Amino acid sequence: MTNTHTPVPQKMVPNCKKRTCCSGQKLVTYSCKVWSMVIICLILIAAAAALLYVLLSKKTGSRPENILTLSKQSDWFPDCPSGLLNLEERFDCYPDDPSVGRTSCEARGCCYVDQQYSDTETDSNGTTETSDRMPKCVYPKNYGYVSLGKTTPIFNGFVLPLQRVPAPSRYGDDIQVAHMKVEMQTTYRLRIKVSCFLF
């Protein structure tokens, strides 16, 4: 018995050299499906990002009506302490240079304290060493943040809006509006979280 094989006519499929969708092809290729899914995912991600931007800018972008009016930065002068004698009361405003001068300290918006105090330390060998550990350039009393508006009660705590005092920037990239969240999580644990985003 002889097997005769008759050729079956095949449809001509356009030859697509690229691995993307071929517009003249009726069958959907695997690469075409992948590219379609990637494009759909990118569109959905862009839409979600735009929606989040609109929602977040409405909450944090507008200033509350009951915000205290603070003076402009040009009206600000450091409120220097008259005498800080204790080491724990001084916060170093110029930590990068312990021997900073008056002009550099005041240019940063800090207070220069002339009083010199030195500590004497005696080690186990009986050697006495004198060191000036108190900083000369300290933060003024009117630095940091002030509370604005009303507190928002939450479960086991509250959220308090804060605004930076309009003082010169000491280190750059200052956050102007922050939110402090205070929660009593357990009987013995208080959680305080400060963030630049609304909780």
From TrEMBL:
Gene name per UniProt: SI_0
Xref: Pfam families: Trefoil
TM ranges: 34-56
Protein's name according to its UniProt entry: Sucrase-isomaltase, intestinal
Entry annotated with the keyword Membrane: yes
Source taxon at top rank: Eukaryota
Organism: Nephila pilipes (Giant wood spider)
Residues forming coiled coils: none
Keyword tags: Disulfide bond, Membrane, Transmembrane, Transmembrane helix
Domain spans labelled P-type: 78-141
